Amino acid sequence: MATMATPICAFGWKAKEFTLKDGWGNSFRLHDLRGPSGTLVMFICNHCPYVQAIAPRIARDALELQKRGIGVVAVMPNDYRRYPEDSPEHMRAFATEQGFSFPYLVDETQAVARAYGAVCTPDFFGFNREMELHYRGRLDASRMAPVADARRELFEAMMQIAETGHGPAEQTASMGCSIKWREEA
């Protein structure tokens, strides 16, 4: 497991449109998942211990954000042929176990992860209502174990984006497992 940190937020960068399927085979377009107050695109996977450690808080924060008009979607970018724990079957089970209220989509070709410049799981991209990037930080101070009374950095940033259209100037990079890229043929 190679640990990676996300780069600094490229403020104003426009979200790339995509259409992907979830673990059940249902198709979703980013355009249809947008929220009137902003949109959160997360790159996560099932087997990463960083994601496993924060998944309950991802589910909690996503539900609260959705209630406030922020669209939420998660994308699984890993090569699940080499990492079968990230297969669509396991994605269905993980989403159900965690109570995800948002689509959890498979990036079969990894084109979406590449278009977004995703580097690790978890990797969070917070967009304003114009689909301009204003957050590329972490969920909170937790890594592989919850930190008591940790500030809800992602939630707070998305609420700020919803209210002002802009994210916080100071952002702490997310950290997690490297994306498991397909081997080139």
Word description of this protein:
The protein is α+β, with helices and mostly antiparallel strands and 185 residues long. The chain has a single domain, classed as Glutaredoxin (3-Layer(aba) Sandwich). It has five helices and ten strands; from the N terminus they run E-E-E-H-E-H-E-H-E-H-E-E-E-H-E. The longest helix has 19 residues, at 49-67. It is globular.
> Any idea what the radius of gyration is?
15 Å
Oligomer: single chain
CATH hierarchy: architecture: 3-Layer(aba) Sandwich
The fraction of residues in strands falls at 15-25%
Helix content: 25-40%
Instruction: Find the CATH superfamily.
Output: Glutaredoxin
CATH topology: Glutaredoxin
CATH class wording? Alpha Beta
Low-confidence stretches: none
Strand order of the largest sheet: 3-2-6-5-4-8-9
Q: What class, by secondary structure content?
A: alpha+beta
Largest sheet: 7 strands, mixed
Question: DSSP helix count?
Answer: 5
Counting structural domains, the number is 1
Give the H and E element order: EEEHEHEHEHEEEHE
Secondary structure tally: strands = 10
Report the principal-axis shape: globular
Average residue pLDDT = 94
Gap between N and C termini: 23 Å
Write the layout of secondary structure elements.
Elements: E1 3-5, E2 19-22, E3 27-29, H1 30-33, E4 38-43, H2 49-67, E5 70-76, H3 88-98, E6 104-106, H4 111-116, E7 120-121, E8 123-127, E9 133-135, H5 153-164, E10 175-178
Parallel strand pairs: 4-5, 5-6
Antiparallel strand pairs: 1-10, 2-3, 2-6, 4-8, 7-10, 8-9
